[in-house]
Design brief:
Blueprint lengths: L1 H10 L7 E5 L7 H10 L3 E5 L4 H6 L3 H10 L3 E6 L5 H10 L5 H18 L4 E4 L6 E6 L2 E6 L11 E5 L6 H15 L1 E2 L1
Parallel strand pairs: 2-3, 3-4
Antiparallel strand pairs: 1-7, 2-5, 4-8, 5-6, 6-7
Length: about 190
């Protein structure tokens, strides 16, 4: 129902008005929300997760959707960790799971390589400075996942934000991830 959302957007004041919903685990975000946010983007898609590998597994046909978005003029970017960095090796030691962080990054690098063959405008960069925070941007919507201690990303709390004001949560996270992007190294 649209009415309560319209009232919330028009009446609620304060910085928390940008919070659309909260999820105790990233894995609880409905796949339909991911598909809607990605498929509906008109200007900007930024996937700044350290591995981003789950996207390729959880969203069948993602490569084709991203290619179509890029062909439509949407800026599509991926910020991932360096699979060979000491930061990645330390995270692997902490997580201590068979599907290592570097392997998960390489899944994304493989998919990204295939995507870039069809859509060369898709960009990718390495950064080791977002190991504990994933930011996924879809125009004026954003999913922010804060990683907890030794838990993997899918077990971490995630907030869905929608930009509604200058200087709010959305703008702060957007500035943070743009800083990481600018400091990153091209893949």
């Amino acid at each position: 129902m649209l009415w309560p959302e319209a009232v919330r957007a028009a009446v609620k004041t304060g910085y928390d008005r940008e919070i659309v919903s909260l999820y105790p685990n990233r894995s609880l975000i409905p796949r339909s929300l991911w598909r809607d946010l990605i498929g509906g983007a008109k200007d900007d898609l930024l996937f700044a997760g350290y591995t981003n590998y789950f996207l390729w597994l959880d969203l069948p046909g993602l490569r084709g959707v991203l290619r179509k978005r890029a062909d439509a003029g949407v800026e599509v970017r991926f910020l991932v960790g360096d699979p060979d960095s000491p930061v990645t090796a330390e995270r692997e030691r902490i997580e201590s799971v068979p599907l290592t962080v570097s392997t998960r990054i390489r899944v994304t690098l493989d998919e990204l390589g295939k995507l870039r063959n069809d859509a060369p405008s898709v960009a990718g960069r390495y950064s080791d400075r977002h190991i504990a925070l994933s930011v996924f941007r879809f125009d004026a919507d954003m999913l922010v996942c804060t990683h907890l201690a030794d838990q993997m990303g899918h077990d971490s709390p995630t907030v869905h934000l929608r930009r509604r004001q200058d200087g709010g949560l959305f703008d702060r996270y957007a500035a943070h991830v743009e800083h990481l992007w600018a400091a990153g190294r091209d893949i």
